[in-house]
Amino acid sequence: MKISTLSIGDELIYGEIVDTNAVHMATRLYDLGIKVQRHLLVGDDLFAIVDALQYLAEGSDILIVTGGLGPTCDDLTAQAAAMATGQELLLNEEALARMVEFVGREGGEFMAASRRQALLPAHCTLIPNPTGTASGFIVSLDGSFLIFLPGVPSEMTRMLNDTVLPFIQERLVRKPVIRTKVFTLFGISEAEIDRIIGDLPAPAAGLAVAFRVSFPVIDVKLRGEGVDESVVAALLETATATIRERLGEFIVVEDGATLDKEVARLFREKELTVSLAESCTGGLIAKRLTDMAGSSAYFLEGAVVYSNGAKSRLLAVPPKMIRDNGAVSAPVATAMATGGRIAAGSDLALAVTGVAGPGASEEKSAGTVFIALADQSGCEVREYHFGGDRRQVRSLTAYTALNWLRRYLMLR
Fold first, then answer.
1. d(CA 286, CA 274)
2. Fold adopted by 3-170
3. Which CATH architecture has domain 259-410?
4. Burial, 64: exposed, middle or buried (Cβ in 10 Å; 0-12, 13-18, 19+)?
């Protein structure tokens, strides 16, 4: 089954709001094993809407349209639907009755101008709207079903779930099977990933590989498609094993999990505590840890020691060490982690100090960062040289530090 979607509204064209409706529809259809083949976005222009309807309907079994069903002069979707299908625009008594009943139930006053929402193509099937005044409707065009829904996300979602998806399911002759597996990778480029697993996609067999960059990580999605559940599962299982074998050292989490949640899970599982000493990240790591519910069970405290004085006063870093080595150095990072663990009484302490930029010197370029991790047996420090602007360096530092915690906890 070929399905397309169309979103209507100047506010979408101008970027004033994000088109969440298109994302939700694509996701829900994908749950049924259906991929949206095309999606268009048009503004509140009558003839542009008519053109889009006719263009998308020509190559689609079903076209789902959202937006432009309100009571104002810029709501032109019903009129465009009538023009595209060669119908009259008439007052739909059932739609009007639904509007009056809804407004009365909500305790409001029905405005005469709202009758505009009941002007629909003469030959259409209504779609009930339990949470709003605008009825949806279905019309036919050259063998295609055109389904119209309001643009208000809460109304669209309810009507999609209650009426549209069942309508589509009834017409699925052969229900496809689509299964996915997602890996989140860190510390490797998109080009390098493609070089390593470029031989995996097998379109003829129903296996596709897709990449999505979401700084500072890359998601690799395996998608298996077919008509036999067992065949698709076996195809995906083999590909999954290959990904883990070739890219295992870069895999942080799988199937939509996040690094922060995984670190939180491991801390709870291992029953260990942690404290932080942050300089260049300004508390970013502490924020990510404490964003997780239940973090008080393992996160004891964090210090943002931006100045040299704070490093000495709060973490007992010797001033001479800072003068001799610089605040951004392995000895200082080590002293910060060690001092932080003693001060907090935690099992682990993680410290970061670096040059996020600007403010680089000849000795320490922007992006130079030292991360130290201390436990009861001692302290390890690592030096990094990150690229990017100030925000990116801070983000990379925080992610690298949390990923180090993840790896440490997995081995305990």
1. 10
2. Molybdenum Cofactor Biosythetic Enzyme; Chain A (3.40.980)
3. Alpha-Beta Complex (3.90)
4. buried
Which pair of tokens denotes residue 376?
């009861």
The answer, yes or no, to whether residue 101 has pLDDT greater than 70, is yes
Query: Cα 135 from chain centroid?
Result: 30
Confidence grade of residue 113 (pLDDT, cut at 50, 70, 90): low
Quick one: pLDDT at residue 281? 97
Count of CB atoms within 10 A of residue 299's CB? 20
d(C-alpha 261, C-alpha 259), whole Å: 6
| pLDDT of 363 over the 80 cut | no
Tokens of 230: 């067992």
Per-residue pLDDT averaged across 4-15, rounded?
95
Closest Cα partner for 147 from 118, 166, 126? 126
Q: Residue by residue, what is the 3-state secondary structure of 29-80?
A: HHHCCCCEEEEEEECCCHHHHHHHHHHHHHCCCEEEEECCCCCCCCCCHHHH
Distance CA 242, CA 246 (A): 6
DSSP 336-391: HHHHHHHHHT-SEEEEEEE--SS---SSS-TTEEEEEEEETTEEEEEEEE--S-HH
Gap between the Cα atoms of 330 and 303, Å rounded: 18
Location of structure tokens 């440490």? 408
Q: Please provide the CATH number assigned to the domain covering 184-254.
A: 3.30.70.2860
Q: Which residues lie below 8 Å from residue 188, measured CB to CB, with a gap of 6+?
A: 218, 247, 250
Sheet holding 274-278, edge to edge: 299-304, 274-278, 348-354, 368-375, 378-385
Give the burial string for 341-357 (b: 16+ CB within 10 Å, else e): bebbebbbbbbbbbbbb
Whether residue 100 is predicted with pLDDT greater than 80 in this model: the reply is yes
pLDDT digits (tens, 9 = 90+) for 313-362: 999 999 999 999 999 999 999 999 999 999 999 999 999 999 998 765 65
Question: Which two three-digit tokens encode residue 68?
Answer: 């432009």
- For residue 178, what pLDDT band results from cuts at 50, 70 and 90? confident
pLDDT above 70 covers what percent of the chain?
Answer: 98
* Domain parsing of the chain, residue ranges: 3-170, 184-254, 259-410
pTM for this model (two decimals): 0.73
Give the span between the Cα atoms of 290 and 275, in whole angstroms: 11
